[in-house]
Write a sequence for this structure.
């Protein structure tokens, strides 16, 4: 499959085309982010967000430009947004004036917080059970057993990129289920 054909099919929601584009450009986007962030987890998260956003907005892709350039631009903008958000958080929490004493906030959850967390977790688990079993499995392995993509790939005997796509789809489907309820 050629890139232009894959893009055309992806615009028609062809999952095989999405997989082809993800497999073709994953390493480029990931390497770009790894250089920028110098952190494997951040690079991986931003790369996943990049493909998620790109696939959601694939209709806006202008074929006058290279697809890789478009992906890298999306990736760069996501990273810039995250850095801005982190800087805003740091500025809001730091105090420049030496006359102020830092207040130590008790972050430990109250009994009410614990009950709410338990209720939210129970609801999340019910929503996860609405997914197809193979999506439930990747969410369980990634978020509850905290396995890496490589470990999940070995456990499921599937290529890493398939695991990433499956997890991305599972998260999208779960988000849709959560927003409906």
């Amino acid at each position: 499959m050629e890139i232009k054909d894959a893009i055309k099919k992806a615009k028609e929601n062809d999952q095989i085309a999405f997989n082809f584009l993800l497999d073709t450009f994953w390493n480029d986007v990931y390497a770009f982010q790894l250089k920028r962030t110098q952190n494997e987890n951040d690079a991986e998260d931003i790369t996943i967000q990049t493909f998620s956003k790109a696939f959601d907005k694939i209709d806006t892709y202008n074929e006058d430009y290279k697809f890789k350039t478009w992906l890298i631009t999306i990736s760069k903008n996501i990273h810039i947004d995250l850095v801005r958000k982190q800087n805003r958080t740091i500025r809001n929490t730091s105090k420049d004036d030496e006359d102020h004493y830092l207040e130590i906030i008790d972050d430990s959850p109250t009994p009410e917080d614990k009950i709410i967390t338990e209720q939210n977790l129970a609801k999340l688990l019910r929503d996860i059970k609405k997914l197809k079993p193979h999506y439930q499995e990747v969410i369980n392995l990634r978020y509850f057993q905290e396995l890496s993509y490589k470990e999940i790939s070995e456990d499921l005997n599937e290529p890493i990129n398939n695991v990433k796509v499956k997890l991305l789809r599972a998260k999208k489907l779960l988000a849709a289920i959560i927003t409906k309820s």
The mean pLDDT is 87.
